[in-house]
Amino acid sequence: MNDINIRKNKLAKIISGYSSKKILVIGDVMLDEYIWGTVIRISPEAPVPVVEVKKRIYTLGGAGNVAANITSLGGQAKLGGIIGEDERALILLKELNKLSIKSEGILKDKNYPTITKTRIIAHDQQIVRLDIESCRNIENDLEDKLLSWADRSMSSVQACIISDYGKNVISVRIAQSVITMAQNLNIPVVVDPKGLDYKKYIGATIITPNIQEAQCVLNCEINNGDDLYRAGIKLNDLVQGSAVLITKGAAGMSLFIDGDKAIDIPTIAKRLYDVTGAGDTVVSTLSISLAAGATLEQAAFLANQAAGLVVGKLGTATVSCNELVKSLN
């Protein structure tokens, strides 16, 4: 058996281990709404298209989409976050229930609207996006309750994901407390970071900034391989040794471990149709792969495979185990 087949068999074995794995997901939970229609004319009121609505669908977004990806890959997700006491919250909880995602960690706050992103799509093209959100800090008692849930749940999972969309759920206290809980149980922590304060992720197993986020946090431009290498090493230092996976869209990914050379992973995407939720797919596949015994390099390779599949789908999408196994060929 040649080396390629041996590697495929190892990766396929890792994927087969997804079904028994439980993953804790904490972060900014959102509802994604898609309104599909047809442009019938230009409005006489303003130079904008008039869309005749054909259908309306809802999917989980943000940390909710991370949990949905875990479920799609055959694992079980325990989800924690904050939603409002509104109609959109009821829709979101219904979507969680459809996927059998455990939602004991979903807390309600009447002063915190359920984050909703509404996309209007006509002729397979997004025309406009409408966002409902509040970036106010959550109250201390809600942080206490969220951390209490995480503490109770951590011992029953094999990996943890911090899904930070910058909506103030993942405070320094939340991030560091959850990472410490996981470290005490030797549980890997995968972080999808946001903002400029990466020190709050110190202690995580791996963080996954995209190339634009890396440029912002380091206040530098990444124009070539040398720039990328220096950025990866600086990020390794910034998070004090956590591995760094820089995602580069159509150019694939680069993995940095312990300040070592970059491991470059080219994309498998045949077409870049829609990048919505691709980062969620990356952290989901990374975490469940690590939970199933993968090395960081194997987990990054599988995350790259999954991302290459999901960007070929329209809207907030997920990837199945069968799709991932087939992609190995």
Task: Walk me through this protein's architecture.
There is one protein chain. With 329 residues, the protein is α/β, with parallel strands linked by helices. The chain has a single domain (3-30, 61-115, 134-327), classed as Ribokinase (UDP-N-acetylmuramoyl-L-alanine:D-glutamate ligase), CATH 3.40.1190.20. Helix content is 37%, strand content 27%. Strand 11 and strand 12 form a beta hairpin. It is globular and about 60 Å long. The relative contact order is 0.14. The mean pLDDT is 91.
Features of this protein?
single chain; 329 residues; alpha/beta; four-stranded mixed sheet
List the helices and strands and how they pair.
Blueprint: H1 3-16, E1 22-27, E2 29-42, E3 49-62, H2 63-72, E4 76-83, H3 87-98, E5 102-108, E6 115-122, E7 125-132, H4 140-154, E8 159-163, H5 172-184, E9 189-192, E10 206-207, H6 211-218, H7 225-238, E11 243-247, E12 253-256, E13 263-265, H8 278-291, H9 296-310, H10 321-327
Parallel strand pairs: 1-4, 1-8, 2-6, 4-5, 8-9, 9-10, 10-11
Antiparallel strand pairs: 2-3, 6-7, 11-12, 12-13
Helix pairs in contact: 2-8, 4-5, 8-9
CATH overall fold name = UDP-N-acetylmuramoyl-L-alanine:D-glutamate ligase
Query: Secondary-structure element order, as H and E?
Result: HEEEHEHEEEHEHEEHHEEEHHH
Find the structural class using helix and strand composition.
alpha/beta
Number of domains: 1
Treating each run of at least 4 consecutive H or I residues as one helix, how many helices? 10
Please tell me the CATH architecture by its name: 3-Layer(aba) Sandwich
Low-confidence regions: none
CATH superfamily: Ribokinase
**Which percent range describes the beta-strand content?**
25-35%
Radius of gyration, CA atoms, in whole angstroms: 20 Å
Straight-line N-to-C gap: 15 Å
Rounded average pLDDT: 91
What share of the residues lie within helices? 25-40%
What profile does the largest beta sheet have?
Answer: 9 strands, mixed
